[in-house]
DNA sequence: AGGGTTGGCTAATAGGCTTAGCTTATAGCT
DNA sequence: AGCTATAAGCTAAGCCTATTAGCCAACCCT
């Protein structure tokens, strides 16, 4: 009986596909094993537990998202960078809903920290183009992150009716953020 | 052997307490039954399935949150209403993290629809004070909802380090939203 | 008091995660 | 090529959760 030639990366990749196709909740040891043509216990040669698999999946997603953000904003600044980042984020979400869902609620943890830090860093880079006062930077970053993440989460959960104008709303949101941030770029007045 | 005198509402209430104390993920038939001093199968006399219990919990949370928003914004308009709504939302989140988590990702469904519609309606009422152009109203509402929900979600997942200045960031966010919406209140220029 | 309803119970099934221990494919060495 | 040590995948088994079936007694109503 030949071996399947599995690998930690292979297993996580299968989990990622499963998450996107059937939802994060369907990422189970049984279904991942089935997809790989292997018996469930075999997975434990590569991964310690389901929780760890979920963590690894979240790390993978955060890494991919971080790369996408970095690539998309490369060479842009100000409003262009903001729009590029926002669209890249939403593009990743719609293309990989299950992976994105994996990152939600698991922003803690040691390994994921490094990966999600890159996402944050990309957003911070976008903000740099707006020359926000130092005292406001953390607040602005959190606001940006909250807004994009919130839109993504709600859309992911089908909270908006999936009309065509969801796209319009997103563009409106980008515009709203841009104007607000631009206004903050000179007045360094704190709270 | 006397009866426990359970009730659909009682069961959901127990689930809600459990969610807040130990996290939404710990809302399981076993733990709810244990908390009520009852054997697991007994719950099925009141609830059809775990999924339905989760739905009911989400509906309860959405209803409570809707009430809190309505009460908080009563009699206010403009910036005051916005601040009151935002703070009420965050207050509910910190007071009932598990219930709030229950509403995430379950914005679909028939019964929850009515409850969550009241939350949306309260936010729409806040926006009315800003006299947004009709063409922009849906977009503004989605932006507001995304932002508040995103902040709540990230904080709930401990995505920000829980510093004291998370409060400051939230106030900054309110200010940011207020200025942006105020700017939209006259210029009815669409995208 | 008596009778029907129904709430809670025990027993049992199915399915998911996980561990233990076996077997043998496979890589690496000689 | 043959030998050996490692480790990949397997079966068997335990535990836990959700769920169903069927029993029995507590409660409500008259």
From TrEMBL, chains A, B:
GO terms for molecular function: DNA-binding transcription factor activity; transcription cis-regulatory region binding. Residues 28-47 bind DNA. PROSITE patterns: HTH_TETR_2. The keyword Protease does not apply. The keyword DNA-binding applies. Keywords: DNA-binding, Transcription, Transcription regulation. Residues 5-65 form the HTH tetR-type domain. This is TetR family transcriptional regulator. It comes from Winogradskya consettensis.
